[in-house]
Design goal:
It is built from 7 helices and 14 strands. The chain is an alpha/beta fold. It has 3 domains: 1-47, no CATH class; 48-205, 3-Layer(aba) Sandwich (Rossmann fold), CATH 3.40.50.300; 230-338, no CATH class. It binds guanosine-5'-triphosphate and magnesium ion.
């Protein structure tokens, strides 16, 4: 085991040589590295380091796979069980407090369970919860205590809430949990009864908005409280813009009802399909948030309630059959799935 001193915020080994690298400090006596100190006290983050992708995991571990409700389209897409087939897996669907209070959670769980079956994912349980909810935390604590495994790893995509859960489970106060993606750099550990809890660095997800916008911008575009759905009826040829990032146009022949589940801080406005390109050409004057390059994707929606997931910003529900075209930042993750909840 390493005796090097680690940053209490992100777990990076403290070092005094490279100011641009994780763990940089002026004095090895400091509690936090400079990056964590700035994030904690000034809310600033510039550098972005993706931690090692796949940690080594003990064979007889309990692995708690954590996913945000915002990332459900990619749930089960990291086949972690292949890295450690002998471990026991529990799936936590975190941040359910972001979904509107009227969400049918039984239906959501049923759909996720069906998806796990389709992907042949080994698991013990799938648990819907919020790391911000005291009752959920207490219930989850009791649940974890029932396992015989000594090592409990919290694993999952960046920003899924691992450190928030780690802190709540262990009453640890120094680790940092913010919307800064890739915050945890190396495993943080804490005792959990007679067991050990490991808060692991997040798995990197390509195409999320934190890969294309600065922290100061993307932190407001990721929802952090109950989402109030915003509904738009789009006539053929009509469109909605989300900031200067995403335009969704009705390219079919019938009206489409569009339900947007995104942060209340995302500016949404109506336009016509024909105006999308001219507006983006003039994006620096027209929009607060924009990127340099865009792509366009026509999407044919099959019958039934469908979901287009907009990277880590949220999602859109639409009822097919319909045709829409989405204009979005080039490289941004966009997916079409059946709607998992209503
Ligand atoms: N509303 C809500 N926000 C949450 C919940 N869990 C975490 N968050 C927020 O989500 C953001 C990311 O949380 P972290 O705990 O830092 O996420 P992480 O998985 O450790 O992220 P990395 O260290 O980057 O891999 C923070 O702003 C948390 O406050 C939750 O259950 N509900
Ligand atoms: Mg973390």
């Amino acid at each position: 085991m390493s005796t090097a001193t680690k940053c209490k915020g992100c777990g990076a080994v403290l070092q005094r040589q490279k100011p641009d690298m994780p763990g940089y400090v002026l004095s090895l006596e400091h509690l936090y590295c400079q990056a964590c100190y700035r994030l904690l006290h000034y809310g600033e983050a510039n550098s972005h380091f993706h931690p090692e992708d796949m940690p080594s995991l003990a064979k007889d571990a309990l692995i708690v796979m954590i996913s945000s409700v915002l990332h459900l389209d990619l749930l089960f897409s990291h086949p972690v069980y292949r890295y450690q087939p002998k471990a026991t897996y529990v799936y936590v669907i975190n941040q359910i407090d972001l979904l509107p209070a009227s969400t049918n959670l039984d239906l959501l769980l049923k759909n996720i369970t069906r998806k796990a079956g389709l992907h042949h994912v080994p698991y013990q349980d799938i648990i819907l919860m919020s790391a911000n909810n005291r009752h959920d935390i207490d219930a989850f604590k009791d649940y974890l205590k029932r396992f015989k495994q000594q090592d409990i790893y919290l694993l999952g995509v960046q920003n899924s809430g691992k450190t928030t859960l780690f802190k709540a489970l262990s009453n640890q106060t120094e680790a940092l949990a913010f919307k800064k993606a890739g915050l945890t750099q190396q495993a943080l550990t804490a005792p959990f009864g007679s067991k050990t809890l490991y808060d692991m660095p997040g798995l990197y997800q390509e195409g999320y908005i934190h890969t294309m916008l600065p922290y100061a911008t993307y932190k407001d575009l990721i929802p952090d409280r109950e989402i109030k759905p915003r509904v738009y009826q789009l006539q053929p040829g009509h469109a909605v813009f989300l900031e200067g990032l995403i335009a969704l146009a009705n390219t079919g022949k019938d009206m489409v009802s569009v339900v947007l589940y995104v942060s209340r801080l995302v500016d949404i406005h109506r336009t016509n399909q024909a105006r999308i390109v001219p507006l983006l050409d003039d994006r620096k004057r027209q929009f607060r948030v924009h990127v340099d390059a865009y792509a366009e994707r026509p999407i044919r929606l099959p019958a039934g309630k469908q979901q287009i997931t907009l990277a880590d910003m949220g999602m859109v529900h639409l009822t097919g059959p319909a045709h829409v075209t989405v204009t979005y930042p080039k490289g941004m993750h966009l997916s079409l799935t059946e709607a998992l909840f209503q």
